[in-house]
Amino acid sequence: MKKATTKMVTMTMEGVRKRKIPKAELKTLKRLAAMPDEQIDTSDIPELTNFAGGVRGRFYRPLTQSVTIRLNAPDIEAARQLSKVKGMPYQTYIRGLLHEALVREAKLVPVRGRKA
User: Fold this and answer.
1) Structural domains of the chain, count
2) Which of the 8 DSSP states describes residue 37?
């Protein structure tokens, strides 16, 4: 039996995604994927039953951020009227307009640090 190594390897997520999986490991993963859950031996993994020290949402980052912006009243009213015609909430409509404008501008204006 092979002795377990204690060497720790640190890798970025990009490195994990790009790493080449050895054939032996790939074969083992395919075998495990085909096996029913009840047949997989998990006896060496202790069951976690006490969550007292756990922290919820520690690594969670929402995909969107909420900000407040000031808009002119006539612009808001126009967005409300146009969004009604399109059958959508006016804030969703404004968000879509802003996104489209940013994408269009990004194509025209070179952004610092961004490859064209």
Assistant:
1) 1
2) G
Q: Whole-model pTM above 0.90?
A: no
- Residue of 63, 62, 66 lying closest to 91 (CA atoms): 66
Domain assignment of residue 92, yes or no: yes
Q: What pLDDT does 110 receive?
A: 73
CA–CA dist 30, 21 (Å, integer):
12
Question: Is 99 a domain residue?
Answer: yes
Of 18-22, 56-60, 76-80, 103-107, minimum mean pLDDT range? 56-60
34 found inside a domain: no
Domain carrying residue 89: 77-107
Q: What is the DSSP string of 99-111?
A: HHHHHHHHHHSPP
Q: Is the pLDDT of residue 92 over 80?
A: yes
Any domain includes 86:
yes
